[in-house]
Design a protein that fits this description.
Helix content: 40-55%
Radius of gyration: 13 Å
Order of helices and strands: HEHEHEH
Largest sheet: 3 strands, parallel
Strand order of the largest sheet: 2-1-3
Number of strands: 3
Structural class: mainly alpha
Number of helices: 4
Length: 110
């Protein structure tokens, strides 16, 4: 159940202290993407938190990196530790987009 999986995963991030959890999702034209978003939103609601930013795009390398850049360009950009990536094929690409723009302390941009 995609919805429950995203409830559980988002709740775990909240338990770890994250308060702004972004969702990088597939387009809402896909049923699984709507289920994942519903779970992500439900976990925020249950915790009394406002959901973080949501971006959606195709499951490609270019899209993953572009969506990461889009999130980091927001005026109140979340840090990469709180991001919640849902497209398994492009996790590395999205992460690459984050590290390219906002490397962790002590890391060099990729």
């Amino acid at each position: 159940d995609g919805r429950q999986a995203f409830v559980d995963a988002t709740q775990r991030l909240i338990e770890l202290g994250h308060r702004r959890i972004a969702l990088v999702n597939a387009p809402a034209t896909f049923m699984f993407a709507r289920h994942r978003e519903a779970g992500w939103r439900a976990a925020h609601t249950a915790a009394g938190l406002k959901p973080g930013p949501l971006v959606a795009g195709e499951a490609t390398e270019e899209s993953g990196a572009a969506l990461a850049r889009q999130l980091l360009a927001l005026p109140d950009a979340p840090n990469r530790d709180g991001e919640f990536e849902v497209r398994r094929r492009s996790v590395a690409d999205t992460y690459s987009g984050f590290t390219e723009i906002a490397p962790a302390p002590g890391e060099k941009p990729m």
